[in-house]
Design goal:
This protein is mainly alpha-helical. It contains 6 helices and 2 strands. The protein has one domain (3-114): Arc Repressor Mutant, subunit A (Orthogonal Bundle), CATH 1.10.10. It has helices spanning 3-13, 22-28, 35-43, 72-84, 97-100, 107-114, and strands spanning 20-21, 59-60.
Length: 121
């Protein structure tokens, strides 16, 4: 499974009403410095019918804020989807990680995703 597919597999596990951040996903996949690569993977979802089931809107930055660059339409779409799931998003696009953070899957599930092998660092 490619790294992007591993990212998508983890993101699919985030339950509605919860969020996690790019760095946590990277760390779960054995790449503690791979937050940017997680962002690239999620950015690659644009217009992908094959990956329409990946809830990209549940991933925020390490500070708990929506950070899709300066694309206002995308930011508003992410905030709207999170609010529909019951996540409180402030006017400055912040989310309480203390309240809404998803800690991640169990180790058995992660082991299945990464196939018993740590990706090359």
């Amino acid at each position: 499974m490619s790294y992007f597919e591993q990212v998508y597999a983890v993101v699919r596990l985030i339950p509605a009403g919860k969020v996690t951040n790019y760095g946590r996903i990277a760390q779960m996949l054995g790449r503690p410095r791979g937050a940017r690569a997680v962002g690239y993977a999620l950015n690659g979802l644009k217009g992908s019918a094959e990956h329409a089931d990946v809830p990209w809107w549940r991933v925020v930055n390490a500070a708990g804020k929506i950070s899709i660059g300066n694309r206002e339409a995308s930011v508003n779409k992410q905030a709207e989807r999170l609010r529909e799931e019951g996540v409180e998003v402030s006017d400055d696009l912040a989310i309480s990680l203390k309240r809404f953070l998803w800690e991640g899957p169990d180790l058995f599930t992660l082991d299945e995703i990464i196939g018993n092998e740590q990706p090359n660092r």
